[in-house]
């Protein structure tokens, strides 16, 4: 975004220096998540106790969950931090669509990984999903049912990453394209896909390429039957 504001091609910068030191036009710049700024007025007017009273499963606060997929009421739902996917679907999204049962979910948008329904009781918060190879990110939750396939979702995500790659670094530019090609096969070459995943995660400049392997690894770990051909 800073590169674009300066009239340049929108590509990530190498860090350091960090934008708090050298940002827009070389001046110190602050970056904030929009959801954080949204709560500032309420904190000033109401204090923080009302906010920390919310939360479930040992977590505190409120969170905006953008839910899409096989639910009756998709959309942005303000819910307690630490709520589980199953609770979120049942209490805020009107349940699953008729004829659909929870099969899998993406807890954090395109990059946040994919988990099976058997892991739908994990609290959704910033540090609860990392042990499972996932993260909550912007809390864009996508719900899949038994009529969907996790491998199809992962392939769709990889094609998105390929399209969105700015092309600056080879691991991301070439890695996402090659991964998408390999993921089209009936049986995945998991060994080669893992090699690509390591290269993208370790050598990409920005978070897009670094997180692109998450869907691959989640499908290989949690949905092996889908990729055995």
Describe this structure in words.
With about 230 residues, the protein is α+β, with helices and mostly antiparallel strands. The protein contains 9 helices and 5 strands. It has a 5-stranded mixed sheet, with helices on both faces. Helix 5 packs antiparallel against helix 6 and helix 6 packs antiparallel against helix 7. The radius of gyration is 19 Å and the shape is flat.
Oligomer: single chain
Biggest sheet: strands, sense, closure?
A: 5 strands, mixed
Number of helices: 9
Mean pLDDT: 95
Order of helical and strand elements = HHHEEHEEEHHHHH
Return the structural class: alpha+beta
Biggest sheet strand order reads: 2-1-5-3-4
Q: Return residue spans where pLDDT drops below 50 for at least 5 consecutive residues.
A: none
- Shape field: flat
How much β-strand is present in the residues? 5-15%
What's the gyration radius in Å?
Answer: 19 Å
Q: Give the N-terminus to C-terminus distance in angstroms.
A: 42 Å
- Count the strands? 5
Helix content: 25-40%
